[in-house]
UniProtKB/TrEMBL annotation:
This is LysM domain-containing protein. PANTHER family: LYSM DOMAIN-CONTAINING GPI-ANCHORED PROTEIN 2. PROSITE patterns: LYSM. InterPro entries: LysM, LysM_dom_sf. It comes from Panicum hallii var. hallii. Keywords: Signal.
Length: 373
């Protein structure tokens, strides 16, 4: 049995596309996030997808969302959302829920790698799958193109479709970020979204190649770069690309270490995770300090036993390093001491990010004028 064709007239956005011959209709166009990172450094990364089921659908459980996106671990879903590890799979999923998925850059654009997939059921249309099940994170055109479906009317029940959710691995303004794929709700503004995610309006406009904040459409799929916590992770560690944005945590080193990120310090905050690993966890200490322990050395300075990654070349080992931070310098994030790694990459350059993005924005505006002229 074939699925029904999508109904363009039921969508004001698609209707607008028909009227304007597609010229001004970004929301109905397949969203593509620039993703130029190349191998071996980082053609893949972990991206976040913000999933908010459409109004009127029954509240999903965490287990249902995990199944929809084929997430390997319930804990990873809790971690991405900053939820306590004791939260059961049967708990209702908060809306929106952040889903962490691998992203692959290819040909200058990014899409979630191999996952999620969806098995077509009787009565499904590609449009209903895109806008219903996947809450507008993709369009039916995205799904058709990714699965080489030449005629969207001809999808067979039982057919397995790859759902290519747009994502990116690119640094922004030279800084590593985690890209969040976000569907702009009706009534939202770029300024409001920037504030909600601790970003700048100019950054969101530039990253999404939007000339103007007024151009935001309800349902538009936006690339929202999230600032991540700085760390002392060694470049030779297996988890050297570990990036944790504010409001979430991550389990690493074979579930032996748990790292959080808080926007009050913007420094990775790691501790040994007890009883989560299925195997032996090596000691995580700096001399007599445990991972995550802090001691003050003077009235202004404190030393922390920080996480420096894990290795498994000869045997499984958790690396640590002492970092010092200045607690008197109000308003400044503490600086990690070891200079070998990318320890304080975020702090001084964060201010430059906005500047760079503003100039990018100006260039984009000029290009827009040139094209019109
Ligand atoms: C969905 O429901 C929320 C809260 O009831 C409302 O604010 C929002 O406008 C609704 N969105 C749509 C697309 O109907
Ligand atoms: C990324 O690649 C696209 C197409 O290959 C190009 O137009 C764009 O300028 C590149 N962006 C960056 C930041 O390199
Ligand atoms: C896509 O479909 C076309 C026409 O049906 C076919 O020629 C082509 O080989 C297909 N490509 C892939 C990658 O399956
Ligand atoms: C960090 O996350 C918390 C909790 O999720 C949120 O209240 C706060 O606004 C966020 N701060 C920034 C700068 O994103
Ligand atoms: C040091 O870390 C260990 C293990 O995380 C913890 O049990 C202990 O309370 C910490 N001590 C101090 C002084 O923070
Ligand atoms: C370390 O390597 C050994 C042998 O390759 C492997 O069996 C083990 O699972 C690895 N441990 C971790 C934590 O990756
Ligand atoms: C700890 O920091 C020192 C000093 O910067 C550095 O030489 C060393 O490689 C670091 N150790 C690890 C495990 O990252």
């Amino acid at each position: 049995m074939a699925a029904m064709p999508p109904l363009p007239a039921s969508s004001p956005i698609l209707l607008c596309c028909l009227l304007l011959t597609g010229a001004l209709c970004p929301a109905a166009r397949a969203a593509r996030f620039a993703c130029n990172a190349t191998a071996p450094r980082a053609s893949t990364c972990q991206a976040l997808i913000s999933y908010a089921p459409p109004n009127g659908t029954a509240t999903a459980t965490l287990a249902a969302v995990r199944a929809l996106f084929q997430l390997r671990s319930h804990r990873a879903l809790l971690a991405a959302n900053g939820l306590p590890l004791s939260t059961p799979p049967t708990a209702p999923a908060p809306t929106p829920l952040r889903v962490r998925l691998p992203c692959l850059c290819s040909g200058g654009a990014g899409a979630t790698f191999q996952r999620p997939t969806y098995r077509v059921r009787a009565g499904d249309t590609l449009d209903a799958i895109a806008r219903g099940a996947f809450a507008g994170l993709v369009t039916y055109q995205d799904i058709a193109a990714a699965n080489n479906v030449s005629d969207p009317n001809k999808v067979a029940v039982g057919q397995q479709l790859w759902i290519p959710v747009p994502c990116s691995c690119d640094p922004v303004g030279g800084q590593p970020v985690v890209h969040l794929t976000y569907v702009a709700p009706a009534g939202s503004s770029v300024a409001g979204i920037a504030q909600e995610f601790g970003s700048a309006e100019e950054t969101i406009l530039a990253v999404n190649k939007m000339p103007d904040a007024k151009g935001l459409l309800a349902g538009q799929v936006l690339d929202v770069p999230l600032r991540t916590c700085g760390s002392a992770i060694s470049n030779t560690a297996i988890d050297r690309n570990l990036l944790v944005p504010n409001g979430s945590y991550i389990l690493t080193a074979n579930n032996c270490v748990m790292c959080g990120c808080s926007s009050s310090t913007w420094q990775l905050d790691c501790q040994a995770a007890q009883g989560l690993s299925s195997s032996f966890c090596p000691a995580a200490k700096c001399g007599d300090m445990f991972l995550g322990n802090t001691s003050s050395t003077s009235s202004c300075e404190s030393r922390t036993c920080s996480y420096a990654g894990y290795t498994n070349s000869t045997s499984f080992a958790i690396l640590t390093n002492i970092t010092t931070s200045n607690t008197c310098n109000a308003g400044m994030a503490p600086m990690a001491q070891p200079a070998h790694s990318s320890a304080f990459r975020l702090e001084p350059a964060w201010l430059r990010w906005t500047e760079l993005v503003v100039s990018l924005h100006v260039v984009l505006l000029c290009l827009g004028y040139l094209r019109q002229g």
